[in-house]
Design brief:
This protein is an all-alpha fold. The chain contains twelve helices and no strands. Helix 1 packs across helix 7.
Length: 274
């Protein structure tokens, strides 16, 4: 167990150091955050109308008039979880392109450590940028938030676990079928639409509401809004419970699928080509 922990920390360090050496990665991450967060905030202001004249319907549908906090929390969370999910899902593909996958995969390190270690390291920069984007948005627009930092941090932790878990099946698919990377990007984008980034989920069609209930991003955004906008700690912890259940369910299914795809990739000799 101790050796697996050390291997995990070494992979996290490797992922962080590799991306830190490439200025383009930092620049593109910052642009992506500005591309999603700032337009969402400005669009929300525009829809609210001069002096917030059109806020009545929004308040009636959401239960709050804190429309900027509602939109910024949703968009920032979506961008951050999107980065984390894509990095996790494509981590093995990245190792393959670097030529390190065969060596790593033939080691005694647990498969889940190999899948998650480097990608979490690469996700550290977007995590810092997401926190910075939220801080800049708050400093710019001065929207009110409830000071429930502890419950919000718990929700974030549960959201990280659920996002890692839901990415493991996709990582298994990418290991066997490299074209699955396109589906990874599609899934990440669809999550932003279905999770209610800037609007309540119950405004979506019935089938979309049903699908959104299976997405960690939906419950992460909901939990953060409950903690930071509505001050409803009970509902925030309920979201944590759902996220933990997702982490266990998706994680278990992902590990089974990873074993199956690993055996198939070995049989087809696909671990060493990109």
């Amino acid at each position: 167990m101790r050796s697996q922990v050390w291997a995990f920390l070494a992979l996290v360090r490797k992922g962080w150091r590799i991306d830190r050496r490439h200025p383009f990665f930092t620049f593109s991450s910052a642009v992506a955050l500005a591309q999603f967060v700032l337009p969402t905030a400005l669009a929300t202001i525009a829809l609210a109308g001069p002096n917030g004249e059109a806020l009545e319907r929004f308040t009636r549908l959401t239960g709050t008039d804190a429309y900027l906090a509602y939109a910024v929390i949703g968009s920032t969370t979506f961008v951050w979880t999107g980065f984390l999910f894509v990095d996790l899902s494509n981590n093995l593909s990245s190792d393959r392109s670097l030529g390190t996958l065969p060596t790593l995969w033939s080691s005694a390190t647990a498969r889940v450590v190999l899948v998650c270690g480097g990608s979490i390291g690469r996700a550290l920069a977007p995590t810092l940028m997401a926190a910075g984007a939220f801080g800049i948005a708050w400093a710019t627009f001065r929207f009110p938030v409830e000071p429930h930092v502890g419950p919000a941090a718990i929700v974030l932790l549960c959201g990280i676990l659920a996002t890692i878990a839901v990415a493991i099946p996709w990582a298994a698919a990418v290991l066997r079928y490299r074209e699955s990377r396109l589906l990874v990007a599609l899934f990440a984008s669809a999550s932003g639409v279905l999770a209610g980034t800037a609007y309540p989920v119950h405004l979506l069609p019935g089938w979309a509401q049903w699908l959104s209930g299976f997405l960690p991003t939906t419950w992460l955004i909901r939990g953060l809004r409950d903690a930071l906008i509505f001050g409803d700690i009970r509902d925030a912890l309920l979201s944590c419970g759902v996220l933990i259940a997702m982490a266990l369910g998706y994680g278990a299914a992902g590990l089974v699928l990873l074993r199956v795809m690993d055996a198939s990739a070995r049989a087809k000799g696909e671990l060493e080509w990109m």
